[in-house]
Amino acid sequence: MPRVTILPGSHTFDVRAGEQLLAAAWRAGVGIKSVCGGRGKCGSCRIEVDSDGAFRHALNPASDAEREWLPADALGQYRLACQCEVIDDITISVPPESQAVKTAPRKPYTLTDTPVLPVVARVPLEVDGAYSVPPRSLATRVSQAAAHALGRRSVELPLDVLADYSLRPGFDGARKVTATLYRGRRVIQLLPEQRDSLYGLAIDIGTTSVVVFLCDLASGGMLAAHTAANPQGIYGEDVISRTTHIQQDIGALGEMRRLLVAELNRLIAQACTECGIANDDIVDAVVVGNPTMQHIFVGINPVPLGRGPYLPVWSEGAEQEAGSLGLDIAPRARVFVFPMMAAYIGGDTIAAVLTRGGDFYRGTHLLIDIGTNGEVVLSHHGRLFATSCATGPVYEGAHIRCGMRAMPGAIERVWIDPDRTIRWSAIDEPGTRSASRPLGLCGSGVISSIAALLGGGLIAADGAMTQARVHGGDPDATKELVLVPALQSQTGRDIVLTQQDVRAVQLGKSALRTGIEVLLAECGVSCIDNIYLAGTFGNHLEPADILKIGLVPSLPVERIRSIGNAAGDGARMALLNRRHRQRAITLARRMAVLELSGRADFNELFVENTRLGEVPSSIGSGPVVAMAPAMPGKQG
Hints:
Layout: E1 3-7, E2 11-14, H1 21-27, E3 46-49, H2 64-69, E4 78-80, E5 90-93, E6 120-126, H3 138-150, H4 159-165, E7 176-182, E8 186-191, E9 199-205, E10 209-216, E11 222-229, H5 239-248, H6 251-275, E12 282-289, H7 291-298, E13 318-321, H8 322-325, E14 334-337, H9 347-354, E15 364-369, E16 374-380, E17 383-389, E18 410-416, E19 421-426, E20 440-441, H10 443-455, E21 469-470, E22 479-484, E23 495-498, H11 499-522, E24 530-534, H12 535-539, H13 543-549, E25 560-562, H14 566-576, H15 579-590, E26 592-594, H16 600-608, E27 625-626
Parallel strand pairs: 1-5, 9-12, 12-14, 15-24, 17-26, 18-20, 19-27, 24-25
Antiparallel strand pairs: 1-2, 3-4, 3-5, 6-7, 7-8, 9-10, 10-11, 13-14, 15-16, 16-17, 18-19, 21-22, 22-23
Helix pairs in contact: 9-14, 9-15, 10-13, 11-16
């Protein structure tokens, strides 16, 4: 079998002859970026092959897709991993901009004061001995002890719970037993000892990242929060790419689910180790996500979500046993998966709305979650309306020349000084005071740079670059503006914003803004009190930037508020208090969904809304230049 070595890190693994390099790398735990899901349509999986020609025949010849994405004079040195078939032993390098995020993305959360009323409880039992009179089976004695402790006539003791119990040492002679009950009437776990600890999980499954919260169900405290990139990224960075893979190969559904559950179990193990608790003390879980992620998590084919009439296969809130889902917690623990309303409005949106207090239902408010898909919820005098817009992965840094995920080295802010100098700030390395030199632009950096350049007069309202160089001097080549010179970047190449980047943002901006305007018009709304920005991306946006480019309707900047990972916060609320689960189901039923596809007014407004907001420049005239960082590795 051919052997592949990947640098940096010297990861070495065997592959099948003819196997796709991208898939083999992910299988071996080496993440290579793949925005399009390995279809040769994005160029994000660029790798470097040793330039001395030693491995020239270790890969198949370059494909047409590679000739489209790679310069002709670089085809011998660079390849696209998704187009490479491994024939012989080879060593390759993955440049920083092609490395998939394997570290935890930033996932903010808000500690909420939720009254504790969990759906589960642990009850100490005094079980009669085997020789007690009258003679009774162990199941009968345990059931009677539980009913007596709860003051009920009877409780349910399923046979599979008893089977699990029978595998524990000393089960038949234990007199002091702990029963974990679901909703006070069904036993889901028996332990041949006294144990009062009670824990649960809130899980937020996003297209880009996943987060696991470990909570104490007795006190309501959050004990640990662990986040990681969604390992399904090998199949594409958006839900459409992943759904397409499943449509072409139904086996991809099982593999995506396996990757996801394995990563969740890794995070669960980290949380348990950190807090010194046993996995079987986790006896409840709540899961939220977008509809595609929720379908994949429970093993349901999500393909119908992506084709007319765009309906989910299931939409009601559901409960399944943790063991059947493969989660490494108490096997009979119930896992509550949030309800969803439509093909692109899922449990994560419901969970975000769940976090809003009474003020949200008085007056008129917008809750917006901006990501690869933009969800918009309008609360108008107590009535709820929702819609969804296909903004694309541009806000995650995808389809941007120098785009990347939000990770150390990603530029997240850009501004222009009065002396016409372009400045920037990048995300720090965790635990250090100085970041690496910049690698590229994350989503908030893309928005910030366009807002700054628009305000500085370098981008016109129609998106055209007014002062830009033409790459390579070719008149037909794309225009670009240098934000960070090559000498100051980690890649050794200029970090630029191109004309195509601006156009991609215009399309995503217009989709969201048009969706908002159609929703407001449909509901007869002309004035908004507040806008709430949910999600990781929304939490890192500057309200002034999104107002500058016209991403949202004009509003005083102080009335645009970031509310963090509201989906995760809502999941924790439903974990800690069972009444919020019913609230979630009620919200899903009362929320009216506006479908935008095929609407003539959407198409008409879309073209108009591609224009960027015009902001008079307060910066003096003259050429703008990219400068070295004011603080090395931190700002420029």
